[in-house]
Design goal:
Blueprint (H helix, E strand, L loop, with lengths): L1 H9 L11 H7 L3 H4 L10 H14 L4 E2 L6 H9 L9 E2 H4 L5 E5 L11 E2 L4 E9 L4 E9 L6
Antiparallel strand pairs: 1-2, 3-5, 4-5, 5-6
Helix pairs in contact: 2-4
Amino acid sequence: HGALIEAVRATGAAIRLIGDGDVAGVIHTTDPDETGIDIYLGTGGAPEGVLAAAALRCTGGQMQGRLILDTPQKLARAAKMGILDPKRVYRAHDMARGDVLFAATGVTDGNMLAGVKFGRNSITTHTIVLRSSSRTVREIKARHQDLEKF
């Protein structure tokens, strides 16, 4: 995306490049007042695209994506999976249909969720839960004290 990055920077817009955490990056666009992020552009795997679409469906966000089928093997695999149009542009509702619930818990510290913290007699977790039917975003900081269950 080098040429596009240069063109965007030429307008005076800020760009933050991320190496990993593409689902979190997409979720950050759903609260630009808090994160300062308005748009996400990138390339990722199909599973990450579905997760991002689910999160966006829960928050009213929009996205477009398409499969990168750049080898004969990928084209053959897609055809075997029933993909008829290899150039189709998918939208969030195509990738995550129906009533959607998205949940993520931090394992290690990230820019969206704190990682698992081990205390003397407890474990603390940070979770986000998103629901499409109500567009509810819940953040849960939980302290687990019955450590035998782990």
